[in-house]
């Protein structure tokens, strides 16, 4: 059973999002987007600690939408020929 500190009115809190560097390296991030200090991974690598992950998501979704359109077009051609 989870403690009350981890929940708000029975709803689980989401985990903090990793910074861009930690997400790319697939490592645990101890930073916080609302905090101005860099996470320990970025500090040790001496790189900027940024939280711009939403751009990757938008590009990913756009690519999926384009792929769906391409597949629909291909399927339409196959169905009309047969």
From TrEMBL:
It comes from the Eukaryota. This is Uncharacterized protein. It comes from Irpex rosettiformis.
